[in-house]
User: Fold this.
Amino acid sequence: MPVSAHPIFPVALAIVEDDARVRELLREYLCHQPEFSCPIVVGSVEELWEELELSLVPRVILLDVSLPGQTGLQALPELRKRLPGTDVILQTMHDDPDRIYQALRAGATGYVIKNATSLPQYKQAILDVLAGGAALSPSVARKALLHFQPAPSQQPELLSAREQEVMQLLVDGLSEKQVAARLTLSPETVHTYVKRLYGKLQVRSRGELLARAAKGDL
Amino acid sequence: MPVSAHPIFPVALAIVEDDARVRELLREYLCHQPEFSCPIVVGSVEELWEELELSLVPRVILLDVSLPGQTGLQALPELRKRLPGTDVILQTMHDDPDRIYQALRAGATGYVIKNATSLPQYKQAILDVLAGGAALSPSVARKALLHFQPAPSQQPELLSAREQEVMQLLVDGLSEKQVAARLTLSPETVHTYVKRLYGKLQVRSRGELLARAAKGDL
DNA sequence: GGCCTTGTACCCTAATCAGGGGACAGCGCC
DNA sequence: GGCGCTGTCCCCTGATTAGGGTACAAGGCC
Assistant:
C-alpha cells in the first residue's frame, strides 16, 4: 500500500496560498528540495483550476484553508473528485475543530498548522503522505481523536465489559449467532446478554438498540 | 488548553514494553533526557498496576499494544478511568486498523509504530502530547482518517425517494410493521422495500443494513 | 410498442429475534 | 453467610425478519 518514500523523479507539488510571503517561503524551500518540483504555485483556488487545465496533475497539493474567493475547504470535495490520485494537505493558522472535521471527512490526507510547522516539517509532511501516511499536526490530531471517543454518555458504567463487547458486535451488524461464534459463546448466552441490554437501555427491539447506539456513542 | 511544552520539572513517564531490548533502549534514551524521568519501567500491565500503587502517577504512559497477560489494548479503558489526567501513547509493530480504532475510541492520546519511529521521534511524540496535542505515526493517522470519510456511499443516487424514506425509519429503530403504519402502507409492501434495500446495499440482514447506515451517511 | 424502474401488494417457508422462564458458579459487599 | 451482579448455559412460545416467488399500474427511455 505505501508508495515509495523516495521516488526517483521529483514529485510535482501544487501550492495554493494567498499570503505572498508565505507562498514564496514555501516555494523557495520546497522547490529547492531534490524530491520536489513545483509546477503550480498560485494564490487562489480559481487560479488552481486554471493551472490544472494546462499543467500535469500534481501528486500533492498544499492547500490553504481560508482563501479569498472559494476557500480551500470548499474546493476540497471537488478537488478530491477530479483528482482522486492526488493527496491534499490543508494548511491553516487555526486548529478549529469544525474545519478539521469537515476537511477530514472530505478526504484530506493532511492538516497542518502554519505557525507550528517548520519548513523541514512541511517537507516531512509531504514525504509522509507520499509514503501512504497522513500528516496531522499534533494539535490537529488531538482534535481529530475527540471524534473517536464516545460522547460522554450514561451507558458505559452501566454496561459491563462483556455486555459492551456484545453491543459493539451487534452495532457492527452481526447477528446473535455470529456474535456467539465470534466470542466463542453459546447463542443462548448471547441472547441472554441481548435481553439484558434491552432491559438496561430501555429498548424493545434490535432496531431501537442500534438506533440508540448510533445516536448515543458509536 | 495546551499544557506548557517546557515544564520546569522533569515529567514522569511510565514505559510498558515486554521486549527487554526495546525497553532498555527506550529507558536509556528517554530517561537521559532532561525533560523526563522514568519512575516506572515494566514489562507487563500487571506489573504496571503494582507500580502504580507505590509510585507517583506518571504524566505519560508508553504502552505496548500486545503484551503477555493483559494486553495494552485491554488495559487502556481501565487505565483511562483510573488515571484520567495521564496521557497514554500506544506503541506497536503493526498499524492494524481495528486496533487503532479501538485504541482511539478508548482514549489513547498517541499511537506510534515502533519500527517507524526513531528515538528522537519518540521524544517528540511525548512532547507533543504534553503540549496538548496527539502523536500519531503517519501510517496510523492515515488509517484513522478513513473513519472520517463517509463510506464510499453510492446510495443517495441509487435509492429512490421512497426507499430512502423507508430506510430512514428503519434507522430510527422502527419495525417493518411500524414503518408500514407510519407510511400508510401494507406491511408486505414495506417488506418488499426492505428486500430491495438489501439487494441494492448488498447486505443480508437488518443488522448489516443499520450498520451501513450508521457509518455510511445518516 | 417493448423494456426498465418504481410503487404497491400478496403468498410461502425457514431462520432469527423477543421475551418469558430457570439454572449455577464466582465475586464483592455488608 | 446471605444478596446482588455478572457470566455462562438451557428451555419454551410467538412475533418478526429473511429471502424466494408473483402481480400489476405508472412513468421514463429508446
Notes: The radius of gyration of chain A is 23 Å.
